[in-house]
Fold this sequence. Notes:
By secondary structure, this protein is an alpha/beta fold. The chain has two domains: about 5-70 and about 320-430, Aspartate Aminotransferase, domain 1 (Alpha-Beta Complex); about 70-320, Aspartate Aminotransferase, domain 2 (3-Layer(aba) Sandwich), CATH 3.40.640. The protein is about 40% helix and about 15% strand. It has a seven-stranded mixed beta sheet with strand order 4-10-9-8-7-5-6, with helices on both faces. The structure holds pyridoxal-5'-phosphate. Pyridoxal-5'-phosphate binds near residues 210 and 276.
Amino acid sequence: MKTDNSRALFEQAQAFIPGGVNSPVRAFKSVGGTPLFIKRAEGAYVYDEDDNQYIELINSWGPMILGHKHPKIEQAVLNAVQNSLSFGAPTQREITIAELIVSMVPSIEKVRMVNSGTEATMSAIRVARGYTGRDKFIKIEGCYHGHGDSFLIAAGSGAVTMGTPDSPGVTKGTAKDTLLAPFNDLEAMRKVVENNKDEVAAIIIEPVAGNMGCVLPKEGYLEGLRELCDEHGIVLIFDEVMTGFRLAPGGAQERFGVTPDMTTLGKIIGGGMPVGAYGGKKEIMDYVSPAGPVYQAGTLSGNPISMAAGLTMLSLLNENPEVYTSLDEKGAYLREGYEKSLKDLGLNYTINSVGSMNTLFFTDKEVHNFEDAKTSNLELFRKYFHAMLDRGIYLGPSQFESLFLSTALIDNDLDRIIKANHESLKEIHGK
Ligand SMILES: *Cc1c(COP(=O)(O)O)cnc(C)c1O
């Protein structure tokens, strides 16, 4: 496969942009080689600057759940553009999208729009602290909540793969208010809470983790967190930046039937534009300025173009519940294909999947938390990643990422992915 243009661009980029990219994981550091510079995409396919075509399994890390260039979303953006790009003043569309989010996401009674998932989680923690009058919060090892200072502690994918789980620049003072517990371990969580009695403002968690690879909550785990938070007056925050509008119209909280106090959203909510949101119980959200004392603001928040894309995306998802049946079917089909290959090749690797999220872990251990995920053979993943890329399949460039399926994938695409997976596994094991 010819990648001369991407190579040349990567060279050029490194002169002007740190590491040549505007977000670290894009640099392919953990898998080696040259990142693909992307020219365009359509439906389930993405094309690089050397005009190679790939089947999309990154989908902008989630937002392109309906495939690239969805005609309705594209049209909504083109229409909105004609009325200017930004006002910094309220618009009617912001009410419409807020109302829709409230109707879709079980925990959300009021919502504030921001510009990224990072902003959403930073703000949610601030509000939880303001509301409870407590300073500390608990995060889960291997969960990622964006690059806010207080979250860059055992932070999953990007941070892990870069080998800097604790970033320089985060002060000890900040880090000391972030407490940690492993995923799927209620007992450990209970201990942390009890050791910090009346000091914990919030527990924040990806209800299905996607940033240590895909890791599902064990039966009763989310329910247990809910009870623990109720017992101790702790704000339970589900970070559904990845799972929101993906695992169900109402996210993982709908799919697993556990309602947090607050929810953070991003990715799909903007339809591909930079958008995030946080919301929750009225009582908590009314602490947000100007209704309440907790300050949070944004010059471009609720931007009309972003809202047009997001509103169209959410409306499409809300009005077409069959999207989720179809995504679940595609996910199950892919998983079956992968399982068959593993069996036929005599390999015992672990697949974690739910709906349209899926990770093949190169370990024979079951993966229920970050420690388990880290038993994966990263060298094998590196080879596998490139073997898949050579066969035209564009995966997230790290073992600690999930695949994100879109509705644009047709059966033939899925069969191509399954075949490529089989051949790649065979190749890297010299079978
Ligand atoms: C991507 C992600 C974020 C950060 O969102 P950005 O828009 O990249 O700032 C936060 N939480 C989770 C769970 C994510 O997957």
